[in-house]
Predict the 3D structure of the following.
Amino acid sequence: MVFKKKKGERQNGSDIKVNFNLISLNNSCAQFGLTSPQAMVILLVCDFSTLTQDEITKRLNLDKSVVAKTVNKLIQSDFMVRTTNRKDKRTYDIMPT
């Protein structure tokens, strides 16, 4: 998640703080083998205990493919599990391990 500026646009103080916070978050996550987007997904799912991938996509305002790749990586790393939603068999619930 990198915030890009339009050509010729200057950064203001809040942009610098956001970038600094992202760098700090990336550095903190690196010790666990995570990226900041992966950590954001973990925090979000832990807050709600169970979310669908679509709900994660909407809450983080990210592309579906980005969330799918991120969730797959977290499942492979045993941070999350995926189960079929009881109400809608086409949907998966994502839960922390």
About this structure: The CA atoms of residues 30 and 36 lie 9 Å apart. Confidence is low (pLDDT under 50) at residues 1-5. The longest strand covers residues 80-84. Helices lie at 13-30, 36-48, 53-60, 64-76.
